[in-house]
Design brief:
Length: about 350
């Protein structure tokens, strides 16, 4: 017996045709795949369209820029935040600015200087220090604000205000340090000069440096320092050190010999700094603000924060993505990695251990 479910009716020649019972299922599967592909293409098109709309609507955010802080129309005290390394180069791998921004901060202090509604400045410092040039520029700008306006300047040190962080705090009328603050580190560093000539020799690598004078290439990775070159570097350090200690002596009204006695680069706790006359009180930021209000009758003044904020929301989000480095293993790779971190040897007011 033939099952009509699987065989067709006879044609004119009496021939029946067999129909596979899986044929319909195969057809269904093909239709399912086509349907799935079509859905995927629709989803992909929607994603592309959404990204296009997002790109257009967020063009201003992607361009970024410096967020301008609106100054109050009434009396106020401004808190200028100096957080992180005092440097011009605070940009991440996306080109997104972060932390302390030097030129922006200088410009904001200029704005405060010219605004008669501003009645005082609190410098909030949480920094291991930074470059000599940037630290001194910021110091001079704070001193200019103080001298031109004759308004009070207080420094409130947070977890650290070392080296350049202390340098910029020196012109304050009063310096407060949190009880857990590490400060001091009064000194200058040129970093660690690395000589890998012996290492390269072990690997059969020879180098030749072509320079116009015997000291033109001093500090090169590939040749040891001579005594003359060490002395040259030391003179650079000594001059910057004299500038640093001279500012501390002047601003803190201390004898220069006493300043140099305590300025051997060591870090001080808040209580140790108080005993050494480097600060005026151990206390919080709120304590500093309350003291200023009491001493200068500034009760009722509004408090505003002068803290750098980049307008680019999208760039800020991208900046939070950590890029994992794909480093190689072995001695050579380790040395190359070290050299990459030591490309420059700037003379700086930086506490290296706190900058880690």
């Amino acid at each position: 017996m033939y099952n009509n479910e699987f065989f067709s009716e006879p044609d004119e020649s009496g021939v029946r045709y067999y129909q596979s019972q899986n044929m319909e299922g195969v057809q269904i599967k093909k239709q399912g795949k086509n349907h799935s592909l079509r859905n995927s293409l629709i989803v992909l098109a929607c994603i592309i369209a959404g990204l296009t709309v997002l790109g257009v609507s967020c063009s201003n955010m992607m361009q970024g820029g410096d967020a301008e802080i609106k100054l109050p129309s009434g009396d106020y005290i401004a808190t200028v935040y100096v957080e992180g390394t005092i440097s011009k180069g605070n940009y991440d791998s996306w080109g997104n600015p972060y932390g302390y921004q030097h030129e922006w901060t200088l410009n904001e202090i200029d704005r405060l200087t010219g605004d008669t509604n501003n009645k005082g400045l609190v410098l909030y410092v949480d920094s291991p220090g930074g470059g000599i040039f940037e630290s001194d520029e910021l110091y001079c700008k704070i001193k200019e604000y103080r001298d031109v306006t004759e308004r009070p300047v207080y420094a409130a040190m947070a977890s650290m205000a070392a080296s350049g962080g202390y340098y910029i705090s020196a012109p304050a009328d009063k310096i407060y340090a949190n009880r857990n603050c590490w400060t001091g580190s009064i000194g200058v560093t040129i970093g660690t000069l690395i000589d890998v000539s012996g290492f390269l020799e072990n690997y059969g690598i020879k180098t030749t440096t072509i320079a116009s004078g015997r000291n033109k290439s001093m500090g090169s990775y590939f040749e040891p320092l001579t005594e003359e070159q060490i002395n040259i570097f030391q003179l650079l350090i000594d001059e910057a050190y004299d500038q640093f200690t001279g500012i501390v002596a002047e601003e803190r009204n201390m004898d220069i010999e006493k300043v140099k006695e305590i300025s051997d680069g060591r870090i001080y706790t808040a209580n140790q700094a108080l005993a050494a006359d480097l600060i005026d009180a151990v206390g919080t930021y709120d304590d500093a603000v309350a003291d200023m209000a009491f001493e200068y009758n500034l009760f009722g003044c509004e408090m505003i924060d002068i803290r750098y904020v980049h307008k680019s929301l999208l760039m800020n989000l991208l900046g939070n993505v950590n890029q994992a480095g794909a480093g190689a293993n072995g001695d050579a790779a380790a040395v190359l990695s070290l050299l990459e971190r030591q490309k420059r040897f700037p003379v700086s007011y930086l506490c290296e251990i706190l900058a880690q």
